[in-house]
Amino acid sequence: MQAPRVLMVYPRFGSHSFWSYQASCAFVGAKYPTAPLGLITVAAMLPPAWEVRLVNRNTEELAEDDFAWADMVMTGGMMVQQPDTLRIIEMCRARGTPVVVGGPDATSSPHVYKAAHFQVLGEAEGILDKFIEAWNADVREGVFVAEPYKADVTTTPIPRFDLLKFDQYLYIGLQYSRGCPFTCEFCDIIELYGRSPRTKTHAQMLSELERLYDLGYRGHVDFVDDNLIGNKKAVKAFLPHLVAWVKEKSYPFEFSTEASINLSDDDELLSLLSRANFFLVFVGLETPNTDALVAMRKKQNTRRSLVDSVHKIYAHGIFVTAGFIVGFDTEKNRVAEEMIAFIQDSAVPISLVSLLTALPNTQLTRRLAKEGRLHSGHELMPDGLNDTCGQGLNFDTLRPQRDVLRDYVDIVRDVLDPEAYCDRIRRLVGLLDYSQRPDAAMRSNRRYNIAGIEMVKKLIDQMPEHGHLFWRTFVHCLKINPRAVQTVVKLMVLYLHLGPFARSMTLQMEQWIAEMERGSRYLSPQERYAARVVVQKRPSVEPRVR
Ligand code: B12
Ligand code: SF4
Question: Which listed ligand is nearest to 41 at the C-alpha?
Fold first, then answer.
């Protein structure tokens, strides 16, 4: 039997997302922030004789030739990619090409993906072999479900990084652990990957890094772990190996990751991360309100000053990006002022403010369903929705929805205002301590290594209206912490996206609020979409192929 040719297609994300950073990517010559780690991991698990071609629809076109070449298509991703995943499945159906869907959204909402010939649900390590066996036995339809949280990540092969065109991306992801020990009510990670973090071996991680290095990649590498410090003992044992590796290679990579705020309680861990050249960590701060934190079961964020905790991380030369949420049941009155003050005090330039979203497969979603407050179609992603920024509130909130949206608009407008953004950068610069970082570590990311001043001039050309602000911020940095220049430039480049994003997001919300003030009922984005479809009929989703 001839080995099949597998076309892997990574579906499109909405381009108006907080996370798309289109203008920022274009500025430094990339096409999209990051690469499809899930698909290239699956590609590495296929039998060596199976030929694989990868098309990332966020960076390149899918051509008719690709379909003509393929014996099967593999696709899948997150909820925000749902419309395009369904489009890809439709394209395959139209051409008679068997299509296999997998990944987090298909796992959480398999009913949405019924049109695919195959569903391979859960972590592929636990189930892909069964699919391969079935394919080899000429089976051309089926559903394969992995046992939850059982996949042994020590068996995960090195992802097929060779399938990536590195220049297309701002950073490349790799993964050390899956799962998180905490219990946040709105989180789907603990349902998909479990509460007991499973880690790869040190040798596995070093081989992944070595492979990236040998393929010529340099620059930003993101540890996509749900919570890198979920198993502190394990990560503390691994980091000294990473420290030694980066030192020996003269710091080819700088790292980012995601971690819970209790990272700030552990000096040893912070120091190890700093020595390994971690420069950025994403933390879910969510809200300054303790009652809300307790109610959402995010106790790790309570009994501490969140602002001091963030600044402690800065003192190790690691800057924080953070997530904040509006729309909790505990909100009685207006929350905007408190949230804005919290974000400004914390001096976190990149603050992702989301509307609370009941993601499929969470404790929150189950509770809201029980209380009769969950909107129908809450798990569907109509075209044009992008992320939990504009998409949230797919349930009845306890206070009027209009008030929640009003708070949201005011927060986004204020914190992503250029003055406020640059003010946070200037405060960050005063708090970041890079004195322990070797010079080589400060130069790991070549994309930003051209003289800072040249980049700032180029940036000002693109945003002349904010030129004076950026210039002032840059000069301030040169004066008080010249080693932070690259960080400042990076944050300014990201504002090329965040500024326009905030403007269009708030404009859209203002329209919704105005409608509600004229007496309309709040419709979640899913409901709005459904209403539009009834009136206008759904526009054709004829796939675009080259
Ligand atoms: C890194 C990450 C991001 C990054 C980068 C994402 C990217 N473009 O790759 C950023 C920060 C941008 C991001 C953003 C968001 N994310 Co995110 N993200 C992750 C995270 C932490 C890791 C992803 C990853 O690379 N995993 C490693 C790979 C190896 O795992 P994997 O993709 O799951 O693949 C495995 C299996 O699923 C399976 N598999 C995957 N694909 C396929 C395909 C086939 C055919 C088969 C057979 C198997 C298969 O095999 C793999 C090996 O086991 C995951 C959680 C997680 N642990 O995966 C959340 C996750 C994917 N994100 C999620 C969400 C909700 C979001 C946001 C919507 C959140 C928001 N606040 O707005 C945004 C939207 C993004 C956008 N509009 O661009 C949810 C998705 C839930 C769902 N039902 O779809 C997840 C699961 C958890 C979470 N809540 O964060 N995210
Ligand atoms: S700390 Fe983060 S990953 Fe862990 S349960 Fe809470 S939200 Fe989920």
Answer: 1
